Amino acid sequence: xxxxxxxxxxxxxxxxxxxxxxxxxxxxxxxxxxxxxxxxxxxxxxxxxxxxxxxxxxxxxxxxxxxxxxxxxxxxxxxxxxxxxxxxxxxxxxxxxxxxxxxxxxxxxxxxx
Length: 113
Known about the structure:
Order of helices and strands: HHEEE
Number of strands: 3
Helix content: 10-25%
Largest sheet: 3 strands, antiparallel
């Protein structure tokens, strides 16, 4: 799967960037070097899968909503290979939502550092 990402959205958030997706490794490295904090992706499972496969994800934060839909699609259906995760912190909210944090296992990550 080759990601072809061309975003032409109006950026509403300060410090947001667009990319054509041609060299995600270099783009992530540039963002990390320019950032004082975390680099985050919201709502793009295809992009997340691509970054996971390239070993560019340090942590997954999954917000679980307590609703059973009975249908839907897997967020990580495009993964070519299994990626084991190491559990991190868990935060339960009064709403019933639960924030789960996981780190991809080091043995599964591509060598990009």
